[in-house]
């Protein structure tokens, strides 16, 4: 399943160089992942009821094109791969002209809510992967 989230860059996201601060891209990606979970009906409370939380353990991001205040962006999120307890999402940030501004592979791990250790992904999450 692939999701898309549209946002507009706000003044508070701009750094002294006049473009989006690099840390804000990570926030955009987080919003995109939340959209992905919600589209799959895996809200936080649903996962918690299954005894699992997901935690991000690695983000490999490439910044391709600067983004400026007021630009309309689309953040896409799609599954790439899944292991026993970890999974990788491919995320991209596009500007209004359809230009790729950033892309990232984000690795997350299913964590047991009680033991706080990795555990196998629940079937409800696994079904979201090809």
From TrEMBL:
Lineage: Bacteria, Bacillati, Bacillota, Bacilli, Bacillales
A Pfam family it matches: 4HBT_2
PANTHER family referenced in this protein's UniProt entry, alphabetically: 4-HYDROXYBENZOYL-COA THIOESTERASE FAMILY MEMBER, NOVEL THIOESTERASE SUPERFAMILY DOMAIN AND SAPOSIN A-TYPE DOMAIN CONTAINING PROTEIN (0610012H03RIK)
InterPro entries: 4-hydroxybenzoyl-CoA_TE (IPR050563), HotDog_dom_sf (IPR029069), YbgC/YbaW (IPR006684)
UniProt keywords, alphabetically: Hydrolase
Record-level Gene Ontology MF annotations: fatty acyl-CoA hydrolase activity
Family membership: Belongs to the 4-hydroxybenzoyl-CoA thioesterase family.
Gene3D superfamilies: Hotdog Thioesterase (3.10.129.10)
Residue spans crossing the bilayer: none
NCBIfam families according to UniProt: YbgC/FadM family acyl-CoA thioesterase
Keyword Hydrolase: yes
SUPFAM superfamilies associated with the record: Thioesterase/thiol ester dehydrase-isomerase
Keyword Transmembrane helix applies: no
Designated name of the protein: Acyl-CoA thioesterase
Domain of life where this protein originates: Bacteria
């Amino acid at each position: 399943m692939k999701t898309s989230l549209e946002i507009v860059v706000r003044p508070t996201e701009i750094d002294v160089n006049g473009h989006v601060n690099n840390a804000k891209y990570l926030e955009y990606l987080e919003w995109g992942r939340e959209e992905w979970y919600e589209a799959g009906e895996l809200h936080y409370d649903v996962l918690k009821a299954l005894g699992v939380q997901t935690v991000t353990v690695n983000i490999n991001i490439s910044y391709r094109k600067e983004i400026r205040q007021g630009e309309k962006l689309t953040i896409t999120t799609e599954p790439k791969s899944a292991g026993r307890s970890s999974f990788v999402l491919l995320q991209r940030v596009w500007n209004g002209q359809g230009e790729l501004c950033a892309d990232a592979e984000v690795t997350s791990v299913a964590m047991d809510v009680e033991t706080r250790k990795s555990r196998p992904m629940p079937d409800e999450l696994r079904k979201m992967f090809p």
